[in-house]
């Protein structure tokens, strides 16, 4: 049997990693400025993370959600403390797409309605409802398009209000900063207006913080820059630092009922141990502050890079928008400079999503490498 071919692969095979460094099978070291799609939050193979996982697997790795698992409650309490959402409820699952699936399902149960308002260039996952609210026809199968979704441009509140007035919308789902879409974001006024409109029309406001959460932008959640309080928040990626885990933070006014949501593997002992250790390291090492400070340093260093039209994002969720397509540049950075970066639906955008522990030394290394990669090859 061979693998089902779904990804175009770079000719690199990582076999180990530490901090912000990935090492391939030939012993070549790569600076990781992509974190495996923003997953590596506290750095590769962090000693505290490794220790907690090893200790947990020696005790118990998994049992079903038919029994008590105190680690789930510990995680819920710690996440509430660190994020500022102490009064919210937590549903644990395995991935970002699954978090959004359950968020949308819960919104439909809550309102008794089915239509969703989502936004152009948004990305929310590849499973059924998650991909239906993702604005990308290439990955949205005919089966998924049966979901009733209306896509709107960012920052146009009047258009949102026109849809909510029809009284058949169960949820508005939005990324505080678009990830795959290219790091575009709504204004503070737009987000505040969304919150007001959702309350006025009884619509559930879902903030997809899967890529932007867990301190990546310099606040625990990116929507906290705008002073809003969503009804539901979906999380994943940096939550487990590589161990599969996702979650749905649910406002207290949404009441649970047995049978609405469920999962086999969600919130298992190993996943909770991983997620707890991530929150502990984020606090102990002040990684949210580091994301803000290092991100500001990165932006200042990138301001005069040739070809850069715009620097997008916040903290360590950043994008360099060039006046040319960056696919070849990314290849040069990987193969010649040994640096991982990311792309986006915007083909001119280079995405930067490093571990939150990264420092100025690594940023300087990248700037030098980028300058080298931008020099035209001599004939």
Describe the structure.
With 379 residues, this protein is α/β, with parallel strands linked by helices. 34% of the residues lie in helices and 17% in strands. It contains eleven helices and 14 strands. It has helices at residues 35-38, 47-59, 70-83, 96-111, 128-132, 157-164, 188-201, 269-284, 287-302, 327-335, 360-374; strands at 14-18, 21-24, 29-32, 89-93, 115-119, 149-152, 169-174, 204-208, 232-235, 246-250, 308-314, 317-322, 339-340, 349-352. The strands form three sheets. A seven-stranded mixed beta sheet has the order 4-10-9-8-7-5-6, with helices on both faces. Strand 5 (115-119), helix 5 and strand 6 form a beta-alpha-beta unit. Helix 9 (287-302) runs parallel beside helix 11. The protein is globular, with a radius of gyration of 21 Å.
Write the topology of this structure.
Elements: E1 14-18, E2 21-24, E3 29-32, H1 35-38, H2 47-59, H3 70-83, E4 89-93, H4 96-111, E5 115-119, H5 128-132, E6 149-152, H6 157-164, E7 169-174, H7 188-201, E8 204-208, E9 232-235, E10 246-250, H8 269-284, H9 287-302, E11 308-314, E12 317-322, H10 327-335, E13 339-340, E14 349-352, H11 360-374
Parallel strand pairs: 3-13, 5-6, 5-7, 7-8, 8-9
Antiparallel strand pairs: 1-2, 2-3, 4-10, 9-10, 11-12, 12-14
Helix pairs in contact: 2-8, 3-8, 6-7, 9-11
């Amino acid at each position: 049997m061979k693998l089902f071919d779904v990804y175009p692969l770079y000719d690199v095979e990582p076999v180990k990693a530490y901090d912000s460094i990935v090492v391939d099978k030939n012993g070549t070291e790569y600076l990781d400025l992509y974190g495996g799609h923003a997953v590596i939050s506290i750095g590769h193979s962090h000693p505290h993370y490794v220790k907690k996982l090893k200790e947990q697997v020696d005790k118990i790795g998994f049992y079903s959600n038919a029994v008590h698992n105190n680690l789930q409650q510990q995680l819920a309490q710690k996440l509430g403390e660190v994020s500022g959402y102490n009064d919210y409820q937590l549903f644990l699952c395995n991935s970002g797409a699954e978090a959004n699936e359950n968020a949308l399902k819960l919104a439909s149960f809550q309102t008794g309605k089915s239509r969703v308002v989502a936004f152009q260039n948004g990305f929310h996952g590849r499973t059924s409802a998650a991909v239906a609210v993702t604005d990308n026809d290439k990955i949205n199968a005919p089966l998924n398009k049966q979901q009733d979704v209306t896509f709107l441009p960012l920052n146009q509140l009047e258009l949102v209000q026109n849809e909510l007035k029809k009284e058949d919308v169960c949820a508005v789902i939005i990324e505080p900063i678009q990830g795959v879409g290219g790091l575009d974001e709504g204004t503070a006024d737009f987000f505040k207006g969304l919150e007001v409109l959702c309350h006025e029309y009884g619509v559930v406001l879902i903030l997809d913080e899967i890529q932007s959460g867990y301190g990546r932008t310099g606040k625990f959640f990116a929507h906290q820059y705008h002073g809003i309080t969503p009804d539901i928040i979906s999380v994943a990626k940096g939550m487990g630092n590589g161990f599969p885990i996702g979650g749905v933070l649910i406002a207290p006014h949404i009441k649970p009922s047995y049978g609405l949501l469920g999962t086999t593997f969600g919130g298992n002992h190993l996943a909770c141990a991983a997620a707890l250790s991530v929150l502990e390291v984020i606090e102990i090492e002040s990684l949210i502050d580091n994301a803000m400070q290092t991100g500001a340093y990165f932006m200042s260093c990138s301001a005069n890079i040739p070809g850069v039209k715009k620097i997008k994002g916040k903290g360590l969720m950043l994008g360099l928008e060039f006046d040319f397509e960056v696919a070849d540049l990314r290849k040069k950075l990987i193969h010649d400079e040994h640096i991982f970066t990311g792309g986006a639906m915007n083909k001119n955008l280079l995405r930067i999503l490093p571990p939150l522990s990264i420092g100025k030394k690594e940023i300087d290394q990248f700037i030098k490498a980028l300058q080298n990669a931008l020099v035209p090859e001599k004939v």
